[in-house]
From TrEMBL:
Mn(2+) binds at residues 169, 200. The gene is aglB. It comes from the Bacteria. Keywords: Cobalt, Glycosidase, Hydrolase, Iron, Manganese, Metal-binding, NAD, Nickel. The lineage of its organism: Bacteria, Pseudomonadati, Spirochaetota, Spirochaetia, Brachyspirales. The record marks 109 as: Increases basicity of active site Tyr. InterPro entries: GlycHydrolase_4_CS, Glyco_hydro_4, Glyco_hydro_4_C, Lactate_DH/Glyco_Ohase_4_C, NAD(P)-bd_dom_sf. This is 6-phospho-alpha-glucosidase. Substrate binds at residues 93, 147, 284. It holds the Pfam family Glyco_hydro_4C. Coiled coil: none annotated.
Length: 441
């Protein structure tokens, strides 16, 4: 079987060690010859890189491993770029959350004004990585799961239409894992789904058991209308802070009861609830820094000091196997059916053909072939039209350096009550993002 050379962009990410363990556990179907980490923050990446070097030496000495901040070294001779960068890191994510909250609006990593601010930072970072890939390894594919995926994907569509970039998100995967548990199945792979929407903004319209064709929607509707996605099997496996998000799916289902919803509609359909349950002095970033970042970096430093990872507490990031599914689909032409963020192009018949939508695709060596999802109802379509306009206006603002477009984008979000509030949030975000955003005039 062909061995692959992979570079992980955003090597200093808190997700890197468990993704590396996952890649090693999947070598049976996706063998590696070389694994490199790339980041533009040498100090942060070294914490992760030094520990991963020990893990690789002990568990996969046959795979050449290195980490670097030099693009040429990182991107030369690779088959796949797996990208999970966070431009501005947690310091800026914190402001994305806190600035909108100050004005009584949802402050969240990818939703609302904070997500738009993050988008304005991410576009340049992701495009730069595509450029490096195309310069040093023109035949490589980039599997991008850097957020905010919707805005990044629209920027790729507009500015890199011919690049080999696939935008994918783990949120539907995570929810499908829960759905499988609710239905008493061992794996989400036993299900076949139909889904339509935008990233972090979509619905399952059909879920059947693959082997028998059994309709699983009635079981799911019954369960979710009472409990949301909060299933007992998640106890101890899911961050406690996520419980309310899973639970709230119950109320999201109530307003569009024919389809199973993505959890992030919480931010768009219940913004007042979200704001009243937020603490501006301790937002999700603070939780992630006190939780995942401390745990991962603490463990990395411990491994490096001990000089061995034999007793490491890192677990295989099992749920990230979707990344290998995608790489295998390209490399081995598996024709796997997966949800990807792709140009609509008629798949959702009564929706903007130029929108980046999240829909099932058959993925093979030439990339994704999107499936037709047909016509969608007015309520869901209306919500999507508003949100896709927000995402497109942010990309317009980035390309044109337009203050007006960014103001319109924030004003149009369901999470912001008025044009006046939008302006106040925007002006403060501009100040905070001086180092990262193009100048807006
Ligand atoms: P993190 O801050 O721990 O790591 C991100 C790394 O990216 C940092 O080390 C940073 O230095 C680096 N970076 C920033 N700008 C860069 C650039 N221009 N070039 C190279 N490296 C750069 O963040 P995290 O919490 O681990 O999240 C990483 C990313 O993955 C985020 O975008 C997050 O939203 C995303 N994510 C996506 C999914 C998904 O499935 N879509 C799931 C989880 C996380
Ligand atoms: C994270 O940092 O974990 C996010 O990507 C999602 C979350 O849990 O807020």
């Amino acid at each position: 079987m062909k061995k692959h050379s992979v570079v992980i962009a955003g090597g200093g990410s808190t997700f890197t060690p468990e993704i590396i363990l996952m890649l090693l556990s999947e070598e049976g179907r996706f063998p590696l010859s070389e694994l490199k980490l790339y980041d533009n923050d040498a100090e942060r990446q070294a914490i992760v890189g030094n520990a991963c070097a020990i893990i690789m030496k002990e568990r996969a000495p046959h795979v050449k491993f290195s980490f670097t901040t030099d693009p040429k070294e990182a991107f030369t001779g690779v088959d796949f770029v797996m990208a999970h960068i966070r431009v501005g890191k947690y310091e800026m994510r914190s402001l994305d959350e806190k600035i909108p909250l100050k004005y009584g609006c949802v402050g969240q990593e990818t939703c609302g004004a904070g997500g738009m601010a993050y988008g304005m930072r991410s576009i340049g970072g992701v495009l730069e990585i595509i450029d490096y890939m195309e310069k040093y390894s023109p035949n490589a594919w980039m599997l991008n799961y850097s957020n905010p995926a919707a805005i990044v994907a629209e920027a790729c569509r507009r500015l890199k239409p011919n690049s080999k970039v696939l935008n994918i998100c783990d949120m539907p995967v995570g929810i499908e894992d829960i759905m499988a548990s609710i239905c008493g199945l061992k794996s989400r792979k036993e299900m076949q789904v139909r889904y339509f929407g935008l990233n972090h903004f979509g619905w399952w319209t059909s879920i059947i058991e693959k082997s028998t064709g059994r309709d699983l929607m009635p079981i799911l509707k019954e369960f979710v209308s009472k409990n949301g996605y909060l299933h007992p099997s998640m106890e101890g496996h899911v961050d406690a802070d996520w419980h309310s998000t899973y639970e709230k799916a119950r109320d999201i289902l109530a307003v569009s009861p024919n389809f199973m919803p993505n959890t992030y509609f919480k931010y768009y359909l219940f913004p007042d609830y979200v704001v009243s349950h937020s603490d501006i002095n301790y937002t999700r970033t603070d939780m992630v820094r006190d939780g995942r970042e401390k745990r991962v970096f603490g463990e990395c430093k411990r491994i490096t000091e001990a000089g061995t990872a034999k007793d490491s507490t890192f677990e295989v990031g099992g749920h990230a196997t979707y990344i290998v599914d995608l790489a295998c689909a390209i490399s081995n032409n598996t024709g796997e059916r997966m949800l990807l963020i792709v140009p609509n192009n008629g798949s959702i018949i009564n929706f903007d053909p130029t929108a980046m939508v999240e829909i099932p695709c058959i993925v093979g060596c030439n990339g994704p072939e999107p499936l037709v999802m047909g016509e969608i109802p007015r309520f869901n379509k209306g919500l999507m039209e508003q949100q896709v306009a927000v995402e497109k206006l942010v990309v317009d603002a980035w390309i044109e350096g337009s203050y007006l477009k960014m103001w319109q984008a924030i004003s149009m979000s369901r999470t912001v009550p008025s044009v006046e509030v939008a302006k106040k949030i925007l002006d403060e975000l501009i100040e905070a993002n001086k180092k990262y955003w193009p100048e807006l005039k």
